Every structure is written in C-alpha cells, then in structure tokens.
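Training component of the fellowship. As part of building independent skills, the fellow (R.M.) carried out the full modelling exercise for a liganded target. The chosen ligand was adenosine-5'-triphosphate. The inputs are recorded below so that the supervisory panel can assess the work.
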Amino acid sequence: MALVRDRRHLSLQLPLPDILPRFSLPLPPTTTTSHSSATASAADFEKLQVLGHGNGGTVYKVRHKHTSKTYALKLVRTNLDPALHRQVLLELEILRRATDSPHVVQSHGTFEKPNGDVAILLEYMDAGTLDCLLKTAGTFSEDAIAAAARQILGGLDYLHSRKIVHRDIKPANLLVNKKMEVKIADFGVSKIMRRTLDPCKSYVGTCAYMSPERFDPEAYGGNYDGYAGDMWSFGLTLMELYMGRFPFLELGQRPDWATLMCAICFGEPPGLPESASAEFRSFIGCCLEKESGKRWTAAQLLTHPFVSGLPENQGAEEC
Ligand SMILES: Nc1ncnc2c1ncn2[C@@H]1O[C@H](COP(=O)(O)OP(=O)(O)OP(=O)(O)O)[C@@H](O)[C@H]1O
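Fellow's submitted model of the complex:
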C-alpha cells in the first residue's frame, strides 16, 4: 500500500574516518576533560553498538574518544536516492532550527561524504523509545503518562511555533533517558511550513497514527495543515501507553490497513476505558476531535488540567 512507509534495512558500510564534517562539531560542555569546546571530526568517534535501524539508515551508539562522552550517530546512505538525500537535508535543517528545546532530541552536528551519505551526531537517549519501554512495562500509569504528555506537548508547542510539523508522532519516535525525560526524535518525514496555509498533502508517516483529515481533508476540517494531525497522533500515542495496545486494534490483532482507515475516517474516535480518570478522558477527547478545527492545539492542551499543574521538565517517576 502506498501509504505504508517503505522500510529499507541497508547494511551500511560507512567507515567513520572517511566522512568529512559538513559543519564543525562544537561538542557540548563536559566535566570529564578539557576537550569540551574542541571541534570534532568523525575519526574522533568509536562505534560501540547498533541502536536501531530506520528508513534508509542505521543509528549507532558512539563514544567520543577524547571526552568518553556517549552520543547516537545516525548514518543515512543517500547516494542512491536523491529524494532521501533531500529529506535528510530537510531533517538536518529542522534539527538545526530546534536546538533549544529540552523536549526535542538535540543534534550536535553532521558529517557528509562527497557521495551524499550523511551522518548526524545526536544526543544519546539511554533508555530507548517509549515503544520499547511499553513492551517491557505492558502499560503506563496515568501519572507517568501525564509527565510524558507534558514534555511531548512542550516539544510539539515548540516545533509548531517554529512552523515545523513532525508528521510521525508515535511511541517509536519518542526517546527517553534514564531520568525519564521524553524527547521528540526522528524528523525523517517532517515538514517546514513556509506559509500559514501551506497544504500538507503527502502521505508520509505511519498510517495507523494518521488523522481523519489526512485521509479525507474535505470531510474533516478542510485543508490539512499538519499541526492538528500531530495532535491526533499524540492522543493515540497516549492511549496506547495506557492501554498497552494500539487503540484501534484488539491486543494481538494484526493491522488490516483498509479496515483501520475506515475506522479512523468513519468510526467514532476511540475512547479510554472506564478505569481512566475523567481528566485523562477529557484530555484525550480534546486530542481526538475528528474535526481538525475543533482539535486542541499543543498550546491549548498545555492549559488542560491533566497536565497544567506539572512542571515543564519533570520526568516520570516510574511507568
Ligand atoms: N538519539 C538517540 N539515542 C538513542 N537511540 C536512538 C537515538 N536515535 C535513534 N535511536 C534508535 O535508533 C532507532 C532508529 O532511529 P530513527 O527512527 O531516527 O531512524 P530513522 O532512519 O529516521 O527511522 P524511520 O524509518 O522511523 O524514519 C530508534 O528507533 C531508536 O531505537
């Protein structure tokens, strides 16, 4: 199906020392050595392990040889695919624009090979993704979800105010560290909106988390601008953390995309079980308004009682 992303698992043979810095890499301050303000080159990093594979790339855990500081290095082999090269350059532009939010994974610089392969040095998130944590924990408590929601909303509000639409919010794209700080990652299909009513038409992102107006813009709020779509995906993500399964599917049920698309477009929005608090249910209702114009924005949701009392930077105590 055209809507489903084509995931390629390339065996990326990209020896780090061959890569040239695309721009200098002033490393963040560190307490360990005097190399804190040094400019790094790719040869300064040692690969430790593979953290994950994504669309066209592999993410490695790497160690800076002089400071011993750990980073994630995302390598994307773009030389065979001009569209992928354009998209990774856009991802870089977005990461460069989003350098001062504690709720967005920070990039420390990039290297680019003459053939167009690109490596992005990222802040290392040592507890993995919310998706991985969910698989281990089974479900999250409401308190943990509220703490995560507060941080993700902070990140979405920050991005949206800079005209950046993520377009692929889901548990697998939300990274966590051991302090349970949650940060938005993977801008591989994101978009910078050039004008207020810039239409956001292309079917990129993960289809299951797409909003009704993305499939049928006319029926659900007119022009699809992407911002409200991120809020729908965010609502589904929180529900998934609470229920331990994707809300439109029963546990263990395999996704049948046609049925799923019909459920999103023609069914009622999914609701939380009775066990959830009234505040949480109201919050999810505001995220999952089918009409995109009625859906709450990130800025509005930050005022909702489910999260409004929480400090901006508080990590969750436990799942
Ligand atoms: N900064 C990071 N710290 C720790 N792990 C990371 C980091 N970035 C990515 N990962 C791991 O690598 C995996 C793949 O990363 P990512 O999703 O960014 O790659 P991608 O090629 O953009 O994938 P996609 O196909 O979803 O666009 C993630 O699921 C996560 O497990």
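The panel noted the following from the submitted structure. Confidence is low (pLDDT under 50) at residues 1-38, 196-204. Residues 153 and 298 are 6 Å apart (CA to CA).
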